[in-house]
Amino acid sequence: GGLGGELEGRATAAWLVKKQSLPNFGSNRPRLEAAVLRTVRYLERSRGVRLASFRGHFVMDTSEEIWMVGSSRVRIQGPEPPPSVEDLARELANVGGRPLPDPDEKERLETQRVLRRQETVSAACIEALRVPPSKRREEHIQSIFAHTREGAFLGSLPAAFHLPLCRFMEHRFLSQGLEAYYSGEEQSNLFIVVTGVVRVMLEPNRRSYCRAVDLAGGDSFAQQAITHPFTPMTGQPLALTDTHLISLPRRAFDLTIGPLSARWRMARGQRERVRRVLGWSPRDRTEGDVRQVAAATMHLRFFQDIPPHVHRALCRTAGYRTFEHGETLFDDEGGAEDALPGFFLLVLSGEVCWEYAGQDASGEREERREALEAGDYC
Q: What is the DSSP letter of 341?
């Protein structure tokens, strides 16, 4: 039931078959030729030699799988054969039905090594998460950090911010078929997948079509709880397998990164200086007054990417307005053109609530609400 034959191939320095003597095996001839070339390349790369001549014996079984069963002639290219030529010839003559070397074997072994390392890192992370945050040692923090540092959401943070966040991370187990939360609920936790697969339905309330994305180890979801707190979740995650999750509360960000938001706020003296200068008519402002306003507002987020001369030009013509608590700045719900604002707002102190209701790109109704603090703009 088998098909046997003797193949002969000569390899040049560029690893190309120069001559081959093959019987007519019909449709199997290209595969046998590829077997010779693949074997020659493997021998040259593994032994660090160049073959001038090679004769191998191959067998094709009933499953059309090619096996190398031996070799009758091996000649090394060069003036003096290396000492290992006899050993190489003896080894090839006693192959004994060994399958042909796979050129992708090295890449496959490297992939397996990476997967084993990921499993080890994930297991150490789960073990560290099960330790209460108050009892975690430095090695526990490093185990959690090693798993989360490759994530897209936390990986962009400097280690000085990322490591303190690892102290607040908690473990959560989600059985297969259960939801982490439902669409429309408010969440105060960010979730990171350690092991398992989670399918997030991005539009669970749509009847005709629902977009979904599958997340695996290292991926995160519910970022909305951090970026837009106190807003209903639009997606709904479902565990496709038994899943271990990292739960990171929003208060961890408030304690770790929250104090940095003070850099966008203005001191009381700066606000009074800006209010006094902007209360004057632009004609009455001197260049020194404009420079004072620019110096007092240069640290605000809006002016970070604006050239200094544009910044001073804006301060030269800007005005100052005060709104009472509960007063509406503008309302374009009716759609009239005169209802649209004719000014740009930069919040110096206090808080402004901005609400929007309309349609998104797919035609669905969309409602958004955002709170603007000192340093924000709209």
A: -
